[in-house]
Specification:
By secondary structure, this protein is mainly α. The protein has helices at residues 13-18, 29-58, 63-89, 94-117, 123-148, 151-183, 188-210, 232-237, 240-277, 285-310, 312-319, 321-324, 327-341, 345-369, 376-408, 413-450. The protein has 2 domains: 25-216, MFS general substrate transporter like domains (Growth Hormone, Chain: A); 230-451, MFS general substrate transporter like domains (Growth Hormone, Chain: A), CATH 1.20.1250.20. The chain starts with 12 loop residues before the first helix and ends with a helix. The relative contact order is 0.13.
């Protein structure tokens, strides 16, 4: 009897290297590495621009208050921008959509640079612009990644791609810290434009490789066809699963933003107490707060990167997405319960560090995985609703909570922490429901694919 053809399943060297961090199978390493570097560049560009945002808006009179109001204005703008994005997706193919949107944001940066150099008041416009950019372009990238991978492959590999986002945030902050003194604040906009343009070039390289290849686990997609003509908000409102995901994102951001206020108020009070005690000079109060946050952000980012690189993929593989989506609300519940009992700077700092590290690593990865069992139209359109408008809506609800709690009810740290305990309880219930629906959808897709 003649022997059949020899089929090798041995992994390539790149696959073996990436298998240290996730379950990477033969032939998956090339695309995975390119996508990881693509989101790395996008996040690097964003974090290069963040110091410019702060400098432009806080340099004007009443900058802190204007910044707070601008966050709410972003949510209002997104009510119009998200449907406009959906309409564009209804007319363009996947490749043309991503090229058009990203090229628009790249083109805006030299305009902002020239306006800032001419001493125009661009603080508010740029703050609004970068807030929309940071949500829409990142959501667009993850929609593309969801489009390329099947639910099974995405659950295995998204942790590596998300590490690109985490490391890009750290690297972008490092670049801005080293170059802003040499080049000036405004020139960082041009640096970001170059990095973002490079990310767009890389996207086109990735997409060119996909044109003649089958999408993992699902077969080829028609990249020339428009994504669909449905209304983005309507897609969410008429779909129980997408509504649950939106509620999950809303509660997550409501809790997190309120938690950031709790930490900020304790840090500010600690600085004032040191000034009153004579252990800190009044003129050094800002330096004390800045040094605290510099160290705090560094610890959070490092912890998040380590979790992302070594634990996230293994956690998802061990317990599944449906259970992993519940981990952050459980961590947050414990964090705010402790903060309510022991509202000190040392305690709140470390419980917020734990919450944010899990949020930036495991939760962010799982949130992207939730769109694996959805249609292409839902990936590109409904994801813009949840990842942009709903995120900002959560921030607005947090701002309203803080305003009522401080200006009307005169609440303290303990009371705000207890409010978050209640919100986290609702968040955990929603997370359980989302996990169940995700599991049902992925099992149904797997059964359909097997027939």
């Amino acid at each position: 009897m003649a022997a059949g053809p020899l089929v090798t399943t041995a992994k390539l060297p790149l696959d073996r290297l990436l298998s240290l961090f996730a379950d990477v199978r033969r032939g998956e390493g090339g695309r995975l590495l390119l996508l990881t570097f693509n989101v790395f560049l996008i996040l690097t560009a964003y974090y290069v621009m963040k110091p410019v945002r702060e400098a432009l808006i806080l340099a004007q009179p009443g900058g802190a208050e204007i910044k707070s109001y601008s966050m709410a204005l972003q949510a209002v703008l997104l009510v119009a921008i998200v449907p406009a994005y959906g309409a564009l997706a209804g007319r363009l193919s996947r490749r043309r959509l991503i090229n058009s949107v990203t090229a628009f944001f790249v083109a805006c940066l030299p305009v902002f640079y020239l306006a800032a150099e001419a001493r125009w008041q661009v603080g508010v416009p740029f703050f609004l612009w970068i807030g929309i950019f940071s949500l829409m372009v990142i959501a667009q990238f993850w929609a593309y990644a969801n489009d390329l991978y099947s639910p099974d492959a995405g659950k295995r590999l998204f942790a590596v791609i998300a590490f690109g986002a985490s490391s890009g945030a750290v690297f972008g902050s490092w670049i801005s810290g080293h170059l802003i003194g040499e080049l000036g604040v405004h020139a960082m906009l041009l640096v970001a434009a170059v990095i973002l343009a490079a990310s767009l070039m890389l996207f086109n390289l990735i997409d060119a490789r996909e044109r003649d290849q089958r999408v993992i686990g699902r077969g080829a997609t028609d990249e020339q066809a428009p994504i669909g003509d449905g209304n983005a908000f309507a897609l969410v409102l008429r779909n129980r699963y997408l509504l649950l995901v939106a509620a999950l994102v809303l509660l997550l951001n409501w809790v997190n933003a309120t938690g950031e206020y709790i930490l900020s108020s304790i840090v500010q009070r600690a600085a004032e107490e040191q000034v009153a005690a004579g252990t800190l000079a009044r003129e050094a109060e800002g330096a004390f707060i800045g040094a605290f946050y510099a160290e705090y952000f560094q610890v959070v980012n490092i912890a998040g990167m380590l979790l992302q690189l070594f634990l996230v993929s293994r956690i998802v593989k061990l317990i599944g997405v449906h259970a992993a989506v519940c981990i952050l609300p459980i961590v947050a519940f414990g964090s705010y319960a402790i903060a309510a009992l022991l509202p000190s700077l040392a305690v709140v700092r470390w419980v917020k560090t734990a919450e944010n590290a899990v949020d930036y690593s495991l939760q962010n990865t799982v949130k992207q995985m939730l769109f694996l069992p959805t249609t292409r139209e839902e990936k590109y359109k409904a994801k813009q609703v949840t990842d942009s408008f709903v995120v900002r809506a959560g921030d607005v609800l947090s701002s309203a909570t803080v305003f009522i709690g401080t200006a009307v009810l005169a609440l303290g740290t303990t009371q705000f922490a207890l409010i978050n305990v209640v919100l986290v309880s609702a968040w955990l219930v929603v997370a359980v429901l989302v996990g169940r629906e995700f599991r049902r959808r992925t099992e149904a897709q797997a059964a359909k694919g097997a027939t």
